Amino acid sequence: xxxxxxxxxxxxxxxxxxxxxxxxxxxxxxxxKEQLPxxxxxxxxxxxxxxxxxxxxxxxxxxxxxxxxxKLPDCFTQDEWDEIKKHHFIHELGYMSNxxxxxxxxxxxxxxxxxxxxxxYGVRIIDAMLDLTERYRRKAMEEGREDIAQVLARxxxxxxxxxxxxxxxxxxxxxxxxxxxDYHVTTGRFDKYMYPYLKADMDRxxxxxxxxxELLEDFFLSFNKDSDLYPGVQQGxxxxxxxxxxxxxxxxxxxxxxxxxxxxxxxxxxxxxxxxNLRVDKNTPLRIYELGSELTKAGLGFPQYSNDDVVIxxxxxxxxxxxxxxxxxxxxxxxxxxxKVGADVANIxxxxxxxxxxxxxxxxxxxxxxxxxxxxxxxxxxxRECDEICGGIRDLWFVPSPLMNIMIDGGVYDGAKYNNFxxxxxxxxxxxxxxxxxxKYVYDEKRFDAxxxxxxxxxxxxxxxxxxxxLRNEAPKMGNNEDLPDGLGVDLLGSFAASLKGRKNCRxxxxxxxxxxxxxxxxxxxxxxxxxxGRRAGEPFGTNFSASLFARINGPLSVVxxxxxxxxxxxxxxxxxxxxFAASMFRDPDSVSKVAAxxxxxxxxxxxxxxxNAVNSELLRDAQIHPEEHRQLVVRIWGWSAxxxxxxxxxxxxxxxxxxxxx
Length: 663
What we know:
By secondary structure, this protein is an alpha/beta fold. The protein has three domains: 1-178, no CATH class; 189-331 and 576-663, no CATH class; 345-553, no CATH class. It has 27 helices and 14 strands. Strands 1-2-3-4-11-10-14 form a seven-stranded mixed sheet. α3 (38-52) runs parallel beside α7, α16 (353-363) runs parallel beside α19 (428-444) and α17 runs parallel beside α22.
């Protein structure tokens, strides 16, 4: 490992080279005055941004390129955005995100080959990229870094001929996509398209395992140079997601030496980027789970696991071609997307299951004679919520991205081969547990009536306070392998998927139901008061697809059994079972094998996605008091990992509130 380079980045010494984008804060106003079309604006801004970048080579680095100009001005004024939003649905920032470009094609063929096929805007983008590369090459020559200069003389203009060239070409392309304004840009199936370069070099004797690892670690450090400049809900939410392993379209395993080196590099560096995802299946050897569990033990909050047996089948049921389904990757967090050819918007909206229950609780419960009648109201309300969500997404528009248009096969200006929309289903345990309370205590045992429950919930249990310990601590809960709440969770997901089935979106695609809660564990929780499961007003939901924070759970295996009961092929937008383990558990010499066996059991039982986090509560609390002493303390937030001390207090507290398991 290049310890000097790592120290430089960890301690943010490279920030000394950064500067503000002075003199251009009124760029959008200038563009508006000239009435420039969107593609021209994006191209001009990229040309400007590239010209303002100052080539910098960090100590002993092998893979170069880093941002020196901080936040770039927008391409549109606020008045223009307001006008655009009158006529279009704008997703998040309005710029393209959560796509997985075709790095493989561009790295292999080079930008000059792409230039011959590009439109006028793509040509100018490529020219600006190559000009900046040339300035870096000259800088390398000035500083006597002939190794870097030699690589930059080849890539990205021409196709890479070796592993280092391929890594450097990737870095420049990835850097440029972010510089253009795209965000949450993933790395795709990195070990699949990059391994041939490494294998060829090792066959020629150019690398040993150790020297290849050293170069890969240098490359991994490059992801962390600029990541704080990338937009997200919180620092660390930057979408630099890397997928390893899985099968190809012929069913052959992809996991290789590079896959293993990536896991090792991540464990050595202990940095949050790139965020590792492992594709596995029923035939995956336990050894690969153990390699992944070593990262869990290290406390990185990844890898995240995705089950090929479930995901591929589910994507095919939705109409994805077999070869594309087999090539799936994850987006910034966990949503399943197709690299090279896909333009799915996998996180376009979210449905709150607890809100559905809350609406029906107040509107319907007192008038329903049976629990099944009440569940009919729940299913109908899910349908109404889907009507409202889908009805609000019309005339979707993105700021055009000339570089991303080059990087997606067939272009992406008006969509691509796949243009499906994903909708999260949030707070599953809160909703299912609430329904279990209603079923058991209102209808079956008749321990209290609907009016009493509503009064208790609306008063945050100030009224009928005697119900709170019963509902919170004794009532059935998802995560304990109990048929009642688990079956209701299955019903909710099935109703959600059925409500979206057959709907067409405004881009000709379909809608996909998912199981992810993401930041909605705070946002959606704030939209309702207390809930019948004993959750108090203001308390967040559980993380993603997981048990409630306060639920008394029998153990991790019961959680796995509860959360593998649905047929996930019908709700395959993604959203992992998330579990926290006490870091002290890993003092047991067999702990890694036990965690690996638990993950394998989850996959073998038909679970679709899983992520694990090793948590040291004492250390986290100390980090809240002394953040300067814990700068590299990493935690998993939802579909991404972050440095704990860089998070808002609400997210820190949520991590501390999560259940911690042992195996």
